[in-house]
């Protein structure tokens, strides 16, 4: 038997407590979203997963701390609630400011113990606010045990609202002021908590006044005097700041919003030639640089007519224009307008530009219009603000040329850290849809920088070949083309099967541009690799690109592609990770081939993700098992420990698996990661909170209610697995508001019953094993931490469907364990 439950709390869960908990929970998620946006700007995208894991680690460790300190804290919960709330309030701006001053160099993480130590210190600073918040929230759960289902529901309501709160703050405030603003809202939570506690005997109001004063001063100070954000030295923003400091660049515009930070720089040092080849005979025009979240996002030509964009004539992107006559052009993901000038130079009949960022489109139409030659408002040019993949699904027009501009750029690698980005434009299904809206002689084109060993462009060819398998095409090889200069590779799909005359024209165009033809129907690879010599197989003269392309067209399942160092299999909507190239079976070969520099040949984002998973898993085991070891005397009578472990770890893993998959999957429907994240988190947590509250009204035993909830979760997920992929495209033509409501309607049923499982498990524990409640909270928190990273790894490796199947199995396991869990406790 566990210890005697504490006496009834001197306070009811009144309005002040409820509002305090709501704001506290909202601040936790708002802080996560804000940190994700800040770290994406100052560092790289993959740090966003570090934020989620750190936040959930705070909840896991707090459960362990409460397990050790349970007897002491329960004597005066009101005082500790207030202290934890105060520490959360002041730690938000203080810890974020300190962490931003740590000189972490991500390029040397695997080589320098000092850098690893700095990363650890950095992680601890980000961990502290979430740790203090978790202590407060979990103290609410323990303090108001009779209303635990309501506490859990309010916590989820606040968590769901926190994402929206962060987005609203980012509309109004720049990145450096977010921490102070969130700290100010946390102070309101602290103040609301003080009101009902000020007259308690153990915490007189006057003794709390200094904490209230400090709690107010700290966030206000950081809001009024925010620290400067120090951008990673290897990002473009740092380079341009250095140019600006020495007088060689000038920032002419900076815009901040929920989608990120946009900076526009003017400098004579910008000389982008857009992959122009060896026959370049024209100087590039004066340019502006577009920085998106600190990274290079596009080039703006400072010209007023197409005559001044002659540099584009020598680019690989000009190949399809030389093969088509006055094409009707669709540019997917165009940012700065350089490819619009290219289309204009070759007499395009019309140009449709699709970009999902309304801030960038607005800047190009307004603030930069006088510098970019009003390129986006010229006759025949149309601009659409929409996710490119969603535009392809909803547009009913046809095009002679579809250029996937967002895939242009240098190769993925340590400089981009793109491997964790889900993207529905470069998938088999989306490219197949683009093929369907081509005119009979139309083409799809992608130009991407080269790298050694090659991977991006081999994968692009595999993607195009896979897309053709979804079409009534007799011979895919007759529709595919690939050519290369010394900087980039252009890959093409032709709607019309290539005839000898067309192939002759294609070869002539490549020759004129001093490019090597890497693939066309009937090519002999010995004829490739003549101008821009690239390393091929050992002892051979043919390029790897040509050999790989021939294998893929022939449908061979062995050779270069299967045994390549990288994963070059085509992505799908179920695994939309084009930039993930890790092939673990070949990691040893990479290390052997590149020695200490192997780290630069693989995506840092994925490496950090895997390292994070093993580190967190180790911490999870230690902190879950520690209470069992040190509290052996207190817990030795608690024979339900194995069942508690299985139950709370299963629901913790399953809940986050579903949340992570839905967040990425519903980008398809919402068309924007920002909309997807905010919609999914809000719907999932609000309806889970509603389920937590309303399940208490059902007059059945906890085990029966757990079975009911698991059954409904099973039915909902089974329906999603069978029909969701077919249903989503039906909603694409609808407006944003309608798609938002459909997203909520799809998430609400399953999330409502997901909200039952956690409070019902705590209710079972409360009866006979109350001492295990903090330990169970720790197990749930740490399993959630592991789930955040594990869900990403499993989605990249196996796809969303299999992760959802695993989540379904975990909920069923929890339901089965609950019966044994209950009986063991009831009979001890």
UniProtKB/TrEMBL annotation:
InterPro entries noted in UniProt: SAM-dependent_MTases_sf
Organism: Desulfoluna limicola
Ranges annotated as spanning the membrane: 12-35, 47-68, 80-99, 119-144, 151-172, 178-197, 209-229, 606-631, 643-662, 674-694, 706-724, 736-758, 770-797, 803-822
Domain of life: Bacteria
Keyword Coiled coil applies: no
Keyword Transmembrane: yes
Protein's name according to its UniProt entry: Spermidine synthase
Keywords: Membrane, Transmembrane, Transmembrane helix
